[in-house]
Design brief:
Blueprint: H1 4-11, E1 19-22, E2 26-30, E3 40-44, H2 56-77, E4 81-85, E5 102-107, H3 115-118, H4 128-147
Antiparallel strand pairs: 1-2, 2-3, 3-5, 4-5
Helix pairs in contact: 2-4
């Protein structure tokens, strides 16, 4: 099986692949298996295993889109905080170890519940389709404001 990120880009169906924004060197997409509502991933177009394999230009946009993701999530979902991170390599917990990506997970005070512990299940009060609509429009709105 190929890379899920490269396949999502090649499909050219952003809604189906949960891509909420395409930048110059990186894109932003919802995680299909989120830790929380609004769990985004910022992904370089370049298929590289680590941040040390990325150019300065790509790293710059990776960080700029991370800032933008936080802003969009804050406006759209009003979280109390964020977990932001990169799991680089299988031993570090990377689910897709050969294509580095950065996770932006919105958090709310008290957002953990008993389901993951007792039922090995995550409960999300919003569907991915709803999150996609909300966040894709937020990225578009942020882009128009920045362009003015």
């Amino acid at each position: 099986m190929g890379c899920i990120f490269c396949a999502a880009l090649a499909a050219n169906d952003d809604a189906e692949n949960l891509i909420v924004w395409r930048g110059e060197t990186c894109f932003v997409m919802l995680n299909r298996y989120p830790y929380n509502n609004g769990h985004l991933m910022v992904v370089p177009y370049a298929h590289r295993p680590g941040i040390d394999d990325l150019t300065g230009e790509i790293m710059g946009e990776l960080m700029a889109l991370t800032q933008r993701a936080i802003s969009v999530l804050r406006d759209a979902m009003a979280p109390n905080g964020f977990n932001i991170g990169i799991n680089q390599g299988v031993s570090a917990g990377a689910g897709v170890a050969d294509h580095v990506h950065l996770h932006v997970v919105p958090r709310w005070t008290g957002d953990t519940n008993f389901m993951p512990v007792l039922g090995a299940t995550r409960v999300l009060p919003e569907s991915l389709a709803s999150s996609y609509s909300l966040l894709a429009s937020g990225f578009a709105r942020e882009h128009s404001v920045a362009a003015e």
